[in-house]
Amino acid sequence: MSDLSRFVKAYDVRGTVPDQLNADVARAFGAAFVRVLAREAPVPSIVVAYDMRPSSPELADAFAAGAATEGADVVMAGLGSTDLLYFAAGYLDLPGVMFTASHNPAQYNGIKLCRAGAKPIGLETGLAEVRDEAQRLLDGEASYATGTGTAQQRDLLTEYARHLRTLVDLSGIRPLKVVVDAGNGMAGYTVPAVLGDAKLDPLPLSIVPLYFELDGTFPNHEANPLEPKNLVDLQAAVVEHAADLGLAFDGDADRCFVIDEQGAPVSPSAITALVASRELAKHPGGIVIHNLITSRAVAEIIAEHGGQPLRSRVGHSFIKAEMARTGAIFGGEHSAHYYFRDFWGADTGMLAAMHVLAALGGAKEPLSELAGAYERYASSGEINSTVTDQHAKLGEVEQRFGTGNEVDHLDGLTIRFPDGAWINLRPSNTEPLLRLNVEAPDTVRMAQLRDEVLAAVRS
After folding, report:
1. Burial label, 119 (beta-carbon count in 10 A; 0-12, 13-18, 19+)
2. Is 102 assigned a catalytic role?
3. How far apart are the C-alpha atoms of 353 and 275, rounded to whole Å?
4. What is the torsion angle, in degrees rounded to the nearest 10, for the CA atoms of residue 236, residue 238, residue 242 and residue 245?
5. In this predicted structure, what is the pLDDT of residue 200?
6. Which of 102, 277, 295, 380 is catalytic?
7. Residue 2: pLDDT above 90?
């Protein structure tokens, strides 16, 4: 029998198929999800979508069957990206369920849950209760009800595309050639609908597709653009086609990475600052959230554009909670998750990509110059080190580098130095790792500080 605690994570469910996640488990989760929601309000309808992994349709159907035993009616949205599911949960005002393992390898699948209006669900906000109720059903300690909820198919792709088009107007931009690497993931389904669908007004975009075939075995490369090796094909194609930019999406297309016309990655910090400036033009004085390992240029640029920067812990549950608490207009992370108040506070890589297209299409200079205005400092990127005692090592680093400098513990250990350099060292929640990020005014200082801290961490 499956031990659900092994693969129910802080924010979602993520396990291997079929030994951990299978139809029986999905059915139990479906019944448990509705049962937990019904403790708060009458039995809801729910909306379910799934990605291109071979196991996803069966798991989604099993989940819907479980939900129906509790009397819930299910809107089956079919294939979709995670942000399409968030759109559905907001647009239809229904709790939502997405079957995806995002960028994980082919043998994985998973479940992302949200409340109506795309409000997130994590272990501390309902997922633990769903897990425990599902475990009781699987163990025979609880019984399935005998409700007869219905399932109805509904294609939301065009409505999703039309909604995004209302948020960013691309109709008047200069013509752009864009290479898009979908990584055989869901962007191969959503990009044509949003940026090139004949059902909507044509846009001045020439799309060069890479790996748009939906294939959850990922035959070309992992759908994880956070790894530099997975950007190589896109970088080469941008140069080969003399494109204006490249876009790379992860497997469930909720994250988007950007490549400039020279084939160089544009940092997610620069994209956060660029999009923030555009959102602040629409919502003057608004709050913009950035996690604590984005570049300090982000907070500077937000303030320069009249906004209020708000620093957050790393992770979408913290960003979304702060979005809801403060009414922030936008939020960005170093991992290329971008959150929009106009999108129910949820993250959408597609909307961030559209902002980049609008900014570039309204400028005369190439993307390398446009993005350069938002890149002010030298960054190490995230570097992982295996340690035997995370807490003890954090204490050692703080003792060695923190004396006389500004220190805080919002998320791990952050130390700021008088010359503007800073380090953040965070423990992984799932592995015996410490994650280091370093930023400094120039590459020489960054490399020197990076090497000193790494030597201390790994000693």
Report:
1. buried
2. yes
3. 9
4. -160
5. 84
6. 102
7. no
Tens of pLDDT, residues 150-178: 999 999 999 999 999 999 999 999 999 99
Phi, psi for 248 (deg, rounded to 5): -125, 125
Residue 391 structure tokens: 């807490």
Q: Please, what is the Cα angle at 432 between 431 and 435, to 5 degrees?
A: 85
Distance, in Å, from the CA atom of 350 to the CA atom of 30, rounded to the nearest integer, reads 28
List of residues 6+ apart from 370 with CB closer than 8 A:
274, 359, 360, 363
Percentage of residues of the chain with pLDDT beyond 90: 93
Could you give the CA distance from residue 103 to residue 225 in angstroms, rounded to a whole number?
A: 9
- The residues that bridge with 76 in the sheet, in sequence order, are 48, 153
Helix axes 349-361, 268-282, angle to 10 degrees: 80
Radius of gyration of the chain (CA): 22
3-class secondary structure per residue, the chain = CCCHHHCECCCCEEEECCCCCCHHHHHHHHHHHHHHHCCCCCCCCEEEEECCCCCHHHHHHHHHHHHHHCCCCEEEEEECCHHHHHHHHHHCCCCEEEECCCCCCCCEEEEEEEEHHHEECCHHHCHHHHHHHHHHHHHCCCCCCCCCCCEEECCCHHHHHHHHHHHCCCCCCCCEEEEEECCCCCHHHHHHHHHCCCCCCCCCEEEEEECCCCCCCCCCCCCCCCCHHHHHHHHHHHHHCCCCEEEEECCCCCCEEEECCCCCEECHHHHHHHHHHHHHHHCCCCEEEEECCCCHHHHHHHHHCCCEEEEECCCHHHHHHHHHHHCCCEEECCCCCEEEHHHCCCECHHHHHHHHHHHHHCCCCCHHHHHHCCCCCEECCCEEEECCCHHHHHHHHHHHHCCCCEEECCCCEEEECCCCCEEEEEECCCCCEEEEEEEECCHHHHHHHHHHHHHHHHC
The pLDDT tens digits for 97-114 are 999 999 889 999 999 999
> Hey, what are 307's tokens?
């906004």
What phi and psi, each to the nearest 5 degrees, are found at residue 398?
Answer: -65, -40
- Which one-letter amino acid corresponds to residue 152? Q
The answer to whether the beta carbons of residues 366 and 244 sit under 8 Å apart is yes
Is residue 343 within 8 A of residue 322, CB to CB? The reply is no
Rounded Cα distance between 427 and 413, Å, is 9
Neighbours of 171 (CB within 10 A): 11
The Cα–Cα gap between 291 and 319 comes to 8
Distance CA 436, CA 273 (A): 22
